[in-house]
Amino acid sequence: MYNNFNKCNFPTTNVSRSPENQSTEAATFILLGFSEYPDLQVPLFLLFLIIYLITVLGNLGMIFIIKINPKFNNPMYYFLSHLSFVDFCYSSAVTPKLLENLIVEDRTIAFAGCIFQFLFACVFVVTETYLLAVMAYDRFVAVCNPLLYTTAMSHKLCALLVAASYSWGILGSLTIACFLVSLSYKGKNIINNFVCEYSAIVSVSYSDPYIIQEITFVFAVFNEAASLMIILPSYAFIFITVLKMPSTGGRQKAFSTCASHLTAIAIFHGTILFIYCVPNSKDSWLLIKVASVFYTVVIPMLNPLIYSLRNKDVKETLRKLFSTKLYCDKI
Hints:
three-stranded mixed β-sheet, disordered N terminus
């Protein structure tokens, strides 16, 4: 979302550039989305609407469950509540406009709206990148240094790590957005996607994009490398520690606590690397749009399902909530 890694440009096209000299404020973008498949517009609308509703209910429900259950008053669930909030936010930055474009003929979005969509999506995607890394470090401390876990993962440190993730996401995204705003744009510009993606915006600019491309490339590579440099060593040490455990039950419990997070990491980073390394060709447009849907719409729905379905405490809390509701309804 926040970059195309510069070497693997996202397939976009600018079908119509107005020759007249118009201001940046007058520039508009047309998000083609899936308009080349008119018969699928309604089915896709219903599908994405269902996915979005599940995303909203799943992530907000996860936050609610963590808040009401005293058992969840620990760092792992503190980070998970923020992960759910971030998933809800970046899905909400993209999906409503996608749903609108599936049922209306006018798919234009104003320059300011396009920049703000990019900004919000970028902020929360970058934040999630680091939250997943922080959660990997949390699992490392819990498995490899369980006696020091409470001391090492203090509330102050957890709050600082979360604040740093949000702050870096906001700072980096604002920097890129400011450079995007500084470029010049004219007239109506067609984007062969359903979202205002960085490379799509740059491709319709009349300015020299060299500086912003270099800055964004460094920003994206740094984020991906920094997060993986935390995640990979953390799980390498976890794996070694688990193998040294004498009891089978201990190994199974340790693997169980890490399985959900590993699944979320694999889906998130795997999809990012896939999207930005697909060859730039017309044949890949549909493939990348489908992958982008998975990345921006489906993954935020999957995360709460992954954590809830594999977590006995979450399932037990849900069972008690439904039991209480049914009892109150009978009364």
